Amino acid sequence: MGIFRRPRETTSAVSPAISEFWEWWAGARPAVEASLSAVPDTPEALLSDGEAGAEAASGLTAEIMEELSRRVARIHPDLQWEIGGMEGRAPALTVSGGGDPELRGLAERWYRAAPDGDAAGGWDFHPARPADPEMLGQELQLGDHDFDLEYVRFGMRADQFRGRVDITAYHPDFLFVSEEHQVAVAFHVLHWALGEDDVARWVGEVKIASEEPVDSLPPAVLPMVVEQIVEDFREPTWLSGEGRTPRGHPAQFGIRFPVHRQDHPLADLHVEVSVPYQHANPDRLPVEPSASALRKFEKKLDALPDSVLVVRQTGDGLRVFHMYVDPDSGVLAELDQLTAGWGEGKAKVASTPDPGWRALAPFQP
User: Fold this and answer.
1) Is the pTM of this model over 0.85?
2) Sorted alphabetically, which InterPro entries does this protein's record hold (predicted)?
3) Domain 237-363, what fold?
4) For 142-189, what is the HEC assignment?
5) Looking at the chain, which residues constitute the CATH 3.30.70 domain(s)?
């Protein structure tokens, strides 16, 4: 007799809009290159919202910029694009979520579908803004205001517990522009100083200052400061904690820390693996032989490809493992096989799309 199961929720693979983008790009690239070659080389970047220096903004025709924006918006309306790498460097096209973890996987799928080798035509492609220190000495035009980025200063405060650097951003022209433009300047400079993914990994709170912070430093120093602060956080470890179950019994927690969304860009699917155990102490926490069996089971979970184990919760005769996986990798089928072989009760696997890793937030230090 066949076994029928309700299909799990999963995210989709490469969207048709991504395939259509690259089909269009193959034909449009010569026109893009012709537009860029029509102006003198400049290190300034062409941004999807037109917020660039005047010379750079004239590099692409309005028709090409509008079509490029339209094609990217069809993938997702909140994605941003940027063309850079001029002035003697290979041209580069970046399509990113601007630091939004909800969009990191989508940008990665766009990137992995990009042409390579001779088909790339000498272009580089990026799913997140790479660091570009040359931009820190240029001007950034937002709306009708030009910001000389050489005047940007960062106050930097180390968070030794979380392995992050909190930033207070200052520019003398912040007095004359909206909060939206202040924040935009701060994050453009952060991305150019450190790279979009490393900003997400290592930068904590970002504040705006109307007066220059005491002991502030130029943005070019940020990579060196971050390198010193995060040295002990390069390799994750397991943090432990205790609490109570909904029934009021003792509970134990294990949290992998740090774990970064950017290191697992295709892991858009949150998976809970619930494993019952039969041998417990009076507090209903596992003892031998269940404790050893659970450790062996966890090692198998941790060894699965295209996934990362982030949290384990234990209490009331149940251990729940929280994982993030690539929904298109076949990991769910492997999890079904693992749970089917568990010998201390019926183990269950449940999955929910969670590209922003929201389910992990309550467990983070």
Assistant:
1) yes
2) DUF695
3) Alpha-Beta Plaits (3.30.70)
4) ECCEEEEHHHCEEEEEEECCCCEEEEEEECHHHHHCCHHHHHHHHHHH
5) 237-363
